[in-house]
Amino acid sequence: MMHKNVKAQQGFFPQPIYMIGSVDEENKPDFAPVTWLTSCSAEPPMMMTAMNKKMVTCANIIRTRKFSANILTNNLKSIIIKCGKNSAKDIDKIKEFGIDFVWGNLAVPLLNESPWIYECIVTNMVETENTMIFIGTVENIVVDSSIDEIGYGKMDIRLMQPLVYSPGSLYLLGESVEI
């Protein structure tokens, strides 16, 4: 294989896609699709997410210091597209798109159709020129009752059909590879 250098750019590919749940100053729920999210500590369990500082979701998380991260599946792709193309500054996404949600233990909105949801309390924030990075402790995980194996390395994530993102496209995961 021959390699070449390319200009530094945004993103690494592919990326998992999550819907971040937050609440505004009137306690109205909002969801925004985010691909910049990863685990960053095993003990305590922590994750970090990053987003543009102009997003309503960013302001909500700065104010409340909590969020939900909902794994997105193929059956939710229309909501991903609608929420990604519209801002909570302009519309009430929950009403406009008929988003089915429930309230989590941390009083953050959870997508009812997501099979795996993290509820997080923000412990650290890092600000860059146009991005805010949130590091949060995972306080609760909500999983679909049909998922039997949830232990580390035991779950077959293909059963959930999570989507991954690469600029301009969403993909389903393929086959498992032995390690």
What's the arrangement of secondary structure elements?
Blueprint: E1 15-16, E2 18-23, E3 29-34, E4 37-41, E5 46-52, H1 56-64, E6 66-71, H2 77-85, H3 93-97, E7 101-103, E8 109-111, E9 116-127, E10 131-143, E11 163-166, E12 169-172
Antiparallel strand pairs: 1-11, 2-3, 2-6, 4-5, 5-10, 6-9, 7-8, 9-10, 11-12
3D structure, described in words:
This protein has helices at residues 56-64, 77-85, 93-97; strands at residues 15-16, 18-23, 29-34, 37-41, 46-52, 66-71, 101-103, 109-111, 116-127, 131-143, 163-166, 169-172. The protein has 179 residues and is mainly beta. Strands 3-2-6-9-10-5-4 form a seven-stranded antiparallel beta sheet. Strands 1-11-12 form a three-stranded antiparallel beta sheet, with no helix packed on it. A hairpin with a 5-residue loop joins β7 (101-103) and β8 (109-111).
Helix content bin:
10-25%
Largest sheet strand order: 3-2-6-9-10-5-4
Basic shape: globular
What Rg, in angstroms, do the CA atoms define? 16 Å
Largest sheet entry: 7 strands, antiparallel
Structural class: mainly beta
* SS strand fraction: 35-45%
Distance between the termini: 23 Å
Order of helices and strands: EEEEEHEHHEEEEEE
Q: Identify low-pLDDT runs.
A: none
Number of separate strands: 12
The mean pLDDT is: 89
Number of helices: 3
